[in-house]
Design a protein that fits this description.
heterodimer, A: 591 residues, four-stranded antiparallel β-sheet, B: 0% strand, binds flavin-adenine dinucleotide
Chain lengths: 591, 96
């Protein structure tokens, strides 16, 4: 036994939750209220989790503003997923939505109100009445800070329920025994730089998305998909990683969203010659063509040398012709963002934009109880003791494309479901299993790899290169040739990673070491994403291939599963059978 | 909503580098906008701040993300004059 292993401090809990966003906190609350001894680990203070950024709202067919019901919501979600979503999980989520939103209200979430006192609901894209009819209004909002109030409410409820928080602890790897049981995780206290083993009968991954995979993205810097990579390293596949939601207009080089509203109000895109290029790509819809068409057009302009700026790496969104008054009134957020971050007055100058990565549809494969599942010869099997929920999981309710307002719903519905299933598991598994010391040693070795001294490349270089490669070779413009190059380039970076060395070997708040661990995680996920994207020869939802422009249900109505070992791909069928209603068979997706 | 941290200047004997490292992690927030505001300000300007400004910066870091965003975007102004002053400085430094 190594001395590091012998001296390792250890704590025991019934249940470990990794991640304190909405998904993790909802699960922890369920557990703590059932008197389980639960630990929540978060790399940042819980209320600084990315859930805090969600401004739009959470979907539930409450019918407070317009007629609505869960079955219509289910239809919209399935159609939005381009039929890749699992219909049993989608039915479960849409049926649970109203109850859970009202539960949040009772827990203290101050939703905005209608005059009659009911919860305010706003219309969002992709919402319909009566299975594709008139626009619905399904998104419940607490002004423009829905995620913030949900997160703070859940945090306070957890404090009350006596959940044990490990704030500013970074989870490194899962601990697994030879029988395949997950027994907890090795974590690192960021303040002291000391590792800690948290032993638990169940472990829930709720670590959020991986937007930092791409150079231009809307996500907070903490969104490095750590849980996804931990699962990969524990031998668990990642599902549907080729599906990443992009938004056509983010601020170039920065990533923040410029809403579609800007083009809706009459703004348009120009290249370096001042040409309104969308007229060439979509003569009718022009700048209001669908997201993927606009994103690809921007990419093409830049690729063909018509980009703007000193590096010719973006295009411009022109708004000045709308006049200061209209801009201030209808697009105040955009004016504010461009003034603050670009020092640009949109009524005088155009705004530099580029497609921006927004949401990770793929993730750790789970069933609707939050149990992590892997394929076996006949069907699938649960990994005993392991659960996942939220953006890091793939249940799959978003399929190939997520609808706005559905991910806050996803995190509370499946956070709670996972909590309930864990309670059952704990009843059947009363004792801690014996810790597999070899697995702990492997996790420690992973951490201590960063103690290697000497000259080498820097983490920052690797990260910048990886993000640029992913944006260029696995972004919005995908062909066989481009993706093939993407795979090669990512694998080259993987080789380079071996020669990376840290210069700072201090312990206290060594953020360089944390960043190295994060980049390692991004790299694992990048391989999964680009490999899955190369293999899928069709266009579906967010994955659009120039060389295979159509959806191909015959061959590709299936989920992909990427395994780290041997970079192997496998597939599993989409669940088309809902729980209690008729299936919605795949149809062309037109809006 | 007041589920905030109670982050203060370090009580123990941290070196200036360690203190900066500690602050760096406090600048990791739940929103991209805040990361941009805080991380670049910390690297470029923190060491030049006066003692009063540094204290005000600590106070700002204790605000929940949504409120911090309101202040840094200039949508509202913190009551404390020193904090308001530092918020303005951060905002001004956020440009290209
Ligand atoms: C700008 C923006 C706006 C959005 N608006 C909406 C909206 O209006 N409606 C909607 O439904 N969705 C919206 N979304 C999506 C939604 O916010 C997210 O999908 C959702 O909040 C994810 O929640 P989560 O609980 O899965 O993860 P997160 O909230 O991301 O939490 C992840 C947690 O994991 C922890 N963690 C991660 N790695 C580690 C590690 N290695 N060790 C320890 N802890 C770790 C983090 O500290 C954090 O606590 C938006 C997304 C963005 C980017």
């Amino acid at each position: 036994m190594s001395s590091a292993l012998r001296d390792l401090p250890r704590r025991q809990f019934d249940s470990l939750v990794i991640g304190a966003g909405g998904g993790g906190l909802r699960a922890a609350l369920q557990l703590a209220q059932a008197d389980a001894k639960v630990a929540v680990v978060s790399k940042v203070f819980p209320t600084r989790s990315h859930t805090v950024a969600a401004q739009g709202g959470i979907n539930a067919a409450l019918a407070n503003v317009l007629p609505d019901n869960w079955h219509w919501h289910m239809y919209d979600t399935i159609k939005g997923s381009d039929y890749l979503g699992d219909q049993d999980a989608i039915e479960y989520m849409c049926r649970a939505a109203s109850k859970l939103v009202i539960e949040l209200e009772h827990a203290g979430v101050p939703f905005s109100r209608l005059d009659n006192g009911k919860i305010y609901q706003r219309p969002f894209g992709g919402q319909s009445q009566n299975f594709g009819g008139e626009q619905a209004a399904r998104t419940c909002a607490a002004a423009d800070r829905t995620g913030h109030v949900i997160l703070h409410t859940l945090y306070q409820q957890n404090i009350r329920a006596k959940t044990h928080f490990f704030d500013e602890y970074f989870a490194i790897d899962l601990i697994r025994d030879d029988n395949g049981f997950i027994l907890g995780a090795l974590v690192l206290e960021i303040e002291t730089g000391e590792p800690l083993l948290i032993e638990a009968k169940t472990t829930l991954l709720a670590t959020g998305g991986a937007g930092q995979l791409f150079r231009t993205n809307t996500n907070a810097h903490i969104n490095t998909g750590d849980g996804l990579a931990m699962a990969l390293r524990a031998g668990i596949p990642l599902q549907d990683m080729e599906f990443f939601q992009f938004h056509p207009t983010g601020i170039a080089g920065r990533g923040m969203l410029i809403t579609e509203g800007a083009r809706g109000e009459g703004g348009y895109l120009i290249n370096k010659d001042g040409e309104r290029f969308m007229e060439r790509y979509a003569p009718h819809a022009k700048d209001l063509a669908s997201r993927d068409v606009v994103s690809r057009a921007i990419f093409t302009e830049v690729k063909e040398g018509r980009g703007c700026g000193p590096n010719a790496d973006h295009v411009m969104l022109k708004l000045d012709h709308l006049g200061k008054e209209v801009l201030e009134k209808r697009l105040p957020g955009i004016c504010e963002t461009s003034r603050t971050f670009l020092h640009i007055e949109p009524s005088e100058e155009p705004i530099p934009v580029y497609p921006t990565a927004h949401y990770t549809m793929g993730g750790i494969p789970t069933n609707r109880h939050g149990q992590v599942v892997v394929p076996v010869e006949q069907g699938e099997e649960c990994i005993p003791g392991l659960y996942a929920a939220g953006e890091c999981a793939c249940v799959s309710v978003h399929g190939a494309n997520r609808l706005g307002g559905n991910s806050l719903l996803d995190i509370v519905v499946f956070g709670r479901a996972a909590g309930n299933d864990i309670i059952k598991f704990l009843k059947e598994n009363r004792y801690h299993r014996k810790i597999d010391e070899a697995s702990v040693q492997a996790a420690l070795d992973h951490l201590h790899r960063w103690d290697q001294k000497g000259e080498g490349e820097s983490v920052a270089e690797i990260r910048a290169d990886l993000k640029a490669v992913m944006e260029e070779y696995c972004g919005v413009f995908r062909t066989e040739e481009i993706l093939q190059q993407g795979v090669e380039k990512v694998l080259e970076i993987e080789q380079r990673m071996k020669n990376v060395r840290l210069q700072d070997h201090s312990k206290i708040f060594n953020t360089a070491r944390i960043e190295a661990l994060e980049v390692e995680n991004l790299l694992d996920i990048a391989v999964a994403t680009v490999t899955s994207a190369l293999a899928r020869q069709e266009s579906r939802g967010a994955h659009s291939r120039i060389d295979y422009p159509d959806r191909n249900d015959q061959q590709w109505l299936k989920h992909s599963l990427f395994f780290k070992e041997g970079r192997r791909l496998d597939y599993k069928p989409v669940t088309l059978q809902p729980l209690s209603v008729d299936t919605f068979p795949p149809k062309a997706r037109v809006y | 909503m007041n589920s905030t941290t109670t982050f203060k200047p370090a009580q123990t004997e941290l070196s200036p580098e360690q203190e900066l490292a500690r602050l760096r992690w406090q600048c990791r927030r739940g929103m991209l906008e805040l990361d941009m505001f805080l991380e670049s300000f910390l690297e470029k300007s923190f060491l030049q701040l006066t003692a009063t400004e540094k204290t005000a910066f600590y106070t700002l870091l204790n605000y929940p993300d949504q409120f911090l965003l309101e202040y840094l975007m200039g949508r509202s102004v913190p009551l404390d004059k020193d904090v308001a002053h530092v918020a303005k400085k951060i905002q001004a430094a956020a440009g290209p």
